[in-house]
## 1
Amino acid sequence: MSNGTELQHAVEILRSGGVVGLPTETVYGLAADATNELAVRRVFAIKGRPADHPLIVHVADAEAARAWVRGWPAEAEALAAAFWPGPMTLVLPRSPLASDAVTGGQDTVAVRVPGHPLARALLQAFGGGVAAPSANRFGGVSPTTAAHVRADLGQVVPLVLDGGPCEVGVESTIVDLSSAEPAVLRPGGISPEQLSAVLGRPVPVRQSSSVRVSGSLASHYAPRAGVELVGAGAVRTRASALRDQGVKVAGLVPDSVGLPAGVGRFFLPDSPTGYARGLYAALRDIDAAGYERILVVEPEGGGVSLAVQDRLRRAAAPRPRGP
Ligand code: TXA
Ligand code: MG
């Protein structure tokens, strides 16, 4: 765990235009001063992320969030009161504080008040907005421990604050409040039902939008190994077939599902929150063990399982092959 000296060091790095690894309750972020365009560009460069993909601005409280947006509708106030600090991001028309570097040139900005105590302490000590995408290389699996960040980016990011494993384990829910109808752009730690309950109207998940949400690209959140979604009844047969072709295959399956010999077995808790919390670490473990293929039985249900299903489907989507 990181201490007060490290926190102070992190604040100094941010003030001087550097980047730090930052724990949040969802996933670890790669943090930079959101008002420093050079620092923000460094984040894009480190991640290998296209510069026109917007970043989320993290702030200490709703009051600070209001400086980044133009107008603060009643629905923003209601959602902020209900879910901040926490795993929810609001998209609103931007104020002049939000530069093109942060918004990818769009008229809107994404703001979030994270709930992790170390993130809160850093944002309070820093006093400004921090742009922080997930601290992984573009397209890969988000990090949920400080060790994951060090493994991905340790060469180029000297300070990674260690806040332990992330409590939620999947990214924040992104809620678009910039048009007449509220909509979820990315399912996450807060479910559409929870949002609807506060707003008193449906908050649909918007499948496609003109806005560039990299997390909405078909292939994203993907481990190195190919991910295949398989029904519980078909796993054994599929696993045997792949094994017989000489593919190094692992199953990420419920306890009740048996696997043939010679197939790796990986396991996540049955509870939706436990599954979400452990998902990214499991995908990384499977990669680290050298498997080429992962057969996943998708968990059912709503709530945070919606975010899990979304990430697994994107991980399973066909991806452009590298050189
Ligand atoms: O839980 C999270 O949100 C984590 C932690 C670190 O806070 N952050 C995260 O950041 O997931 P990132 O950059 O990996 O994903 C942010 C998503 C991207 O898909 C981006 O396109 C979208 O937010 N986004 C940012 N600004 C937006 C905007 N103005 N309109 C629509 N989407 C936006
Ligand atoms: Mg990301």
## 2
Amino acid sequence: MTVLAFETSCDETGVAILRQRDDESGPDLLASEVASQIAAHEKYGGIVPEIASRNHLIYAPRLLERATTAAKLPLSEVDAFAATSGPGLASSLMIGASVAKGLAIGFGKPYLAINHLEGHLLSPFFGGADPNNEIRPNISLIVSGGHTMLICVRGLSDYQLIGRTVDDAAGEAFDKVAKMLGLGYPGGPEIEKHARHGDPKRFDLPRSMLDSENFSFSGLKTAVRYLLLKIIGRFCETPNDEQRLTQTAYKLDGRVLSDLCASFQQAIIDVLVRKTLAAAQQHRVGLVTVSGGVSCNQDLRRQLGEACARKGFEFKNAKPWLCTDNAAMIAFAGLLRLQVGFQSEVTEEIDPNLALV
Ligand code: KG4
Ligand code: ZN
């Protein structure tokens, strides 16, 4: 069984081909191509939807050709064509879904509309040796640029929402704080790099909504903003706060920058670890998983893993290359769904606000 998938929900174009053989092993990833558009959006300080969709239109056919060449597979041998159908940017989602639908119609094969969040949620199970790809019950923490949520997973497509962010996603907070600090986009890897040599205890930053199942990161972002104003206020004489922060004319001392990044990162990690462990204890599930772009963060992976070990939970994280947006996770979700007989109508529309539960 072979699935070819497209991921075009935001600014990454991905094409992947995944094959499940009829033996005792897990699926083989025959190809996974990703084209990042970071450089095209960086100068605007965020994603510009029209630029993203124009680039998807350029990259999708090229990556399709590269993937089929790498897999040495004619398109006629693909058993189903999958695409992310939401959530995401409408004009971006449309490109991958349209190409996948066209191929499905042209080759007379099923079309699979996949929820991007399900792709992330299942990614920690990718690469296993189980040919049935069983999804064991787990507490799943999805942390990305657009989403922060805790889900109780009982099995494939059996999901219960435990909590989600009421304002910014964790990745969004990393990106916004990095921008404030004059660091590049995406902000997560930049902050992680500076945090590596910093003191996470130097600055006292808030851990919000600790007694709730939901998350909130906008207060933390604002706290960093005021702290930064206080720090640079000593060196900078611009007439108002807005100018001070947007001007980035100030130069933060290297030690202060590292300590600020480390303190901010630790504030996010503390909240994520605490709520995830509380959910695992409450829902009596023996396995904890983490996925999404923010789960590339080495300190988060380590601290969540250690906290799980202390409390007797098994811990699984997606491989770092599977954490940020890619089509392999969409192909995997598509394959699992195909194995249980799921198919979508080619008339099914993309949905920018598609819910997971
Ligand atoms: O999953 P993803 O590629 O896209 C969405 O579905 O949103 O996640 C991208 C997010 C960005 O906000 C980025 O700053 C964050 O993941 N990220 C990180 C790290 N690498 C990427 N955050 C913290 N530490 C990292 N190492
Ligand atoms: Zn994502």
